[in-house]
Amino acid sequence: MRSSQYLLSTLKETPSDAEIVSHQLMLRAGMIRKVAAGLYTWTPTGLRVLRKVENVVREEMEAINALEILMPMVQPADLWQESGRWDDYGPELLRIKDRNQRDFLLGPTHEEIISQLVRKEVSSYKQLPLTLFQIQTKFRDEIRPRFGVMRAREFMMKDAYSFHLTDESLQKTYDDMYKAYSRIFERLGLDYRPVIADTGSIGGSHSHEFHVLASSGEDAIAFSDSSDYAANVEMAEALAPAGERPAATQKMEKHQVHGDELAAVLQPLSVESQQAVKSVIVKASDDIEAEYIQLVLRADHELNTVKAEKLEQVAAPLEILTQTEKATDIEAPYIGVVKAKLPLLVDRSAAHLADFACGANEDGHWLTGVNWERDTPDYTVVDIRNVVAGDPSPCGQGKVKIARGIEVGHIFQLGTKYSDAMKVGVLSETGKHETLTMGCYGIGVSRIVAAAIEQNNDERGICWPDALAPFQVVIVPMNMHKSARVQAAAEKLYEDLKAQGIDVLFDDRKERPGVMFTDMELIGIPHQVVVGERNLDENQVEYQSRKGGEKQKVSLDDCVNFIK
Ligand code: ATP
Ligand code: MG
Ligand code: MG
Ligand code: MG
């Protein structure tokens, strides 16, 4: 690919409404563009990465004999009435009507559609076990879409469903899936942990979530430092024998914090800030052990001239630790982020505390501590500051560690929940009608792209693991438009790399070298080859890895082999 024929669209500034690094970098690297809350367009660069994830997922599904299908995103209500979920599913389900006033929905998941398919297509035990999967768009009307594609409303999921005559057969496929998921996250170069997860009404420990470890993660997981034990914190408690709460979670105190408590803390702020600041959003710090929270001060749109002094004034009653100044303009209503010490508990989830906000309403009345969306002033805060490595793991082996995770996958033994309701069965060997038992297995394909960036970035931008990079190599020619020799060498290298099937970007734009380097480092292409006059005198080019390390001179003739 030549940059001159490509759509690069990188941004210099960090968009002020993007709170976590992956969202910031996906916007800056020109991977996604927002259409509306939780809805994104994937640009050529973003889509290249998304496809890499998809392909790894597809290969590993096929390796365990799962068969790919594609189901419609729009689903008829009657199937959901059969399963009972038309009434049970909350407001995350987007319901729509067609021109004949018939009810439909945008699929948040596909158990009903797959059950309908299998009850029609599969009639004999000889056709079992059967695992089907798709990679497709889901829609969930999330209460708070945030962090870009991390929690979107429309997002890409791989969902697989398996059908069995016996629990043993289901367990085998479940184990295969568990291993396939582990291979997927290993191949993608992610630091991940499978954890025991909640099975809701079905019970047992027949569900695992796969978490990518990252400080921005919305979930907390507890794991042992010397065994394979890992569970999300709710399960670490739920699985303990009755009356024996694990020592670690005993210390994880839960408090109901009333809105008034928060209001009292924030009261001094509100008096100072009514003029300048429209709202204050309280967030827990990213660092799980730290005792500060962040305040995001948001100015009214018209108050675009509010400067850092005002911010300081507003936050003056608090013990300020650090403060970042942010540009203010009409597009960017946030005037700054302050890290401050507050006499408040640190929540286990930044996202949850963000629900707490206070601000001035239209009449200038200051509202505090109201969880706006849920419309309740009460809030459960889980304090994990007292949990220290010293504490025994809930499994009894080794010490407990607590980390934040991003849920990127979830596998689940459903049993006969759907097959009972929707009459999915076959004739068994003895000619009896048997209801099938089911498993379902999801991977957040688009969320993985963001999660990978959370783990692979530096101050210059994204550092893609090879398996995910939009391009493997970039050729950066120095002043090519003035040097026929540089141009000829770069063109030849480009053709040679392409001939080897290597994904290569040729930065043939009429830009200064500095601009090219900045863009390519931001996008995070793992390998860079610089073609310049001086090195060509010795028939050499310069190689640099995005992950750092020394620049190396490589002979032009060996370059393709060196990269391979
Ligand atoms: P979460 O707890 O984050 O809301 P979930 O448990 O509701 O996720 P599942 O029903 O288990 O999600 O769906 C399978 C996978 O789809 C999740 O593990 C996650 O990776 C991904 N996913 C779920 N919701 C979203 C979303 N709003 N945006 C992006 N990916 C999502
Ligand atoms: Mg969810
Ligand atoms: Mg979940
Ligand atoms: Mg889940």
From TrEMBL:
Catalytic activity: tRNA(Pro) + L-proline + ATP = L-prolyl-tRNA(Pro) + AMP + diphosphate
Domain remarks in the Swiss-Prot or TrEMBL record: Consists of three domains: the N-terminal catalytic domain, the editing domain and the C-terminal anticodon-binding domain.
Predominant localisation class: cytoplasm
Physiological role: Catalyzes the attachment of proline to tRNA(Pro) in a two-step reaction: proline is first activated by ATP to form Pro-AMP and then transferred to the acceptor end of tRNA(Pro). As ProRS can inadvertently accommodate and process non-cognate amino acids such as alanine and cysteine, to avoid such errors it has two additional distinct editing activities against alanine. One activity is designated as 'pretransfer' editing and involves the tRNA(Pro)-independent hydrolysis of activated Ala-AMP.
Alphabetically ordered keywords of this record: Aminoacyl-tRNA synthetase, ATP-binding, Cytoplasm, Ligase, Nucleotide-binding, Protein biosynthesis
A GO BP annotation: prolyl-tRNA aminoacylation
Domain of life, per lineage: Bacteria
Name of the protein in question: Proline--tRNA ligase
UniProt-listed PROSITE patterns: AA_TRNA_LIGASE_II
EC number of the protein: 6.1.1.15
Subcellular location: Cytoplasm
Aminoacyl-transfer RNA synthetases class-II family profile domain ranges (all copies): 33-465
Family designation: Belongs to the class-II aminoacyl-tRNA synthetase family. ProS type 1 subfamily.
Assembly description: Homodimer.
GO molecular function (one): proline-tRNA ligase activity
InterPro entries per UniProt: aa-tRNA-synt_IIb, aa-tRNA-synth_II, aa-tRNA-synth_II/BPL/LPL, Anticodon-bd, Anticodon-bd_dom_sf, Pro-tRNA-ligase_IIa, Pro-tRNA-synth_IIa_bac-type, Pro-tRNA-Synthase_IIa_type1
Gene3D superfamilies per the UniProt record, alphabetical: Anticodon-binding domain, Bira Bifunctional Protein, Domain 2
Gene Ontology CC entries for this record: cytosol
